[in-house]
Amino acid sequence: MAYENLVVEKKPPIGYITVNRPKVLNALSIRTVLELSDAFKDMRDDENIRVVILTGSGDKSFVAGADISEFQNLTPDGAREYAIRGQTLLNLIERLGKPVIAAINGYALGGGCEIAMACTIRVASENAKIGQPEVGLGLIPGYGGTQRLPRLVGKGRAYEMILTGDPIDAKRAEEIGLVNRVVPQTNLIEECEKIALAIAKRAPLAVRYCLEAVDRGLNGSLDDGLVLEANLFGLVFGSEDCKEGVRAFLEKRKPEFKGR
Ligand code: CO8
Asked: Which of 24, 60, 114 to mutate to test the pocket of ligand 1 (most atoms within 8 A of CB)?
């Protein structure tokens, strides 16, 4: 697929996806959502890519939300389709089988906050402003904000953000656990790359199973999550990488993982 609204780059082991609509602060049009789905599937299927970094172009905005200009003629049924299309993309990101790091380089509002929350790890630049402003448009969040935000920061804090619609700054986002860390904008991608490379050194299958255990575990009961963890723990013992990791430790050398 030729991308009009994205810049996609691969420097294995890292893949980079940049939403590139700076004139509208990287707002997500329908086409952008479709392009993102295609780009993420490509990253998922490329075994040389171990971690994906998602960001927005320019120094002002990560993603300023869904493209509001496309809302004008939406019917209720069309709006439902619109929300499902976005939710499908965010589920794809959350369950990619490899980590996705959101490099939040400015505004992450509405759908922008929601897409960042579907990522595995969030790093924000000092100028970031993050929020769910939908109530100010007479809407409610439609790309998973009412579900992922309370899971990340707790019900009370999520209510405050969703009901006032007011964005919070990067420092506050770090305080409440909405972002993992805040860094100067000039270092943002470099900091994300450091995290990505630290993960890329580890066993790919083990990383994948950790993602699955945490993600699926959080959506169910503790008991079910523990069963899943035990099953995946058993499964990973059948991998060559597990044998290699244990052998390398005992032989006091670095492991060479193959993703098998
Ligand atoms: N959609 C379309 N255009 C946008 C958006 C957006 N979300 N955000 C900014 N733009 C455009 C502006 O219209 C403006 O265009 P132009 O130059 O042609 O006038 C350009 O980007 C620059 O924006 P501003 O001049 O407004 O820049 P400021 O620095 O003054 O303000 C803000 C920056 C505060 C980010 C401001 O632009 C703003 O409030 N933007 C809207 C933020 C917002 O409300 N986002 C949530 C949208 S709703 C949503 O995401 C729901 C997702 C789920 C959808 C499911 C529904 C079915």
From this structure: 24
Q: What does the longest C-alpha to C-alpha distance in the chain come to?
A: 65
86 within ligand 1 shell (Cβ under 6 A): yes
**pLDDT tens over the chain, length 260 residues:** 899 999 999 999 999 999 999 999 999 999 999 999 999 999 999 999 999 999 999 999 999 999 999 999 899 999 999 889 999 999 999 999 999 999 999 999 999 999 999 999 999 999 999 999 999 999 999 999 999 999 999 999 999 999 999 999 999 999 999 999 999 999 999 999 999 999 999 999 999 999 999 999 998 999 999 999 999 999 999 999 999 999 999 999 999 999 89
- Catalytic annotation present for 212: no
Q: Atom 28 in ligand 1: which residue has the minimum CA distance?
A: 25
Q: First-to-last CA distance in the chain?
A: 30
For β-strands 14-19 and 6-11, DSSP reports them as antiparallel
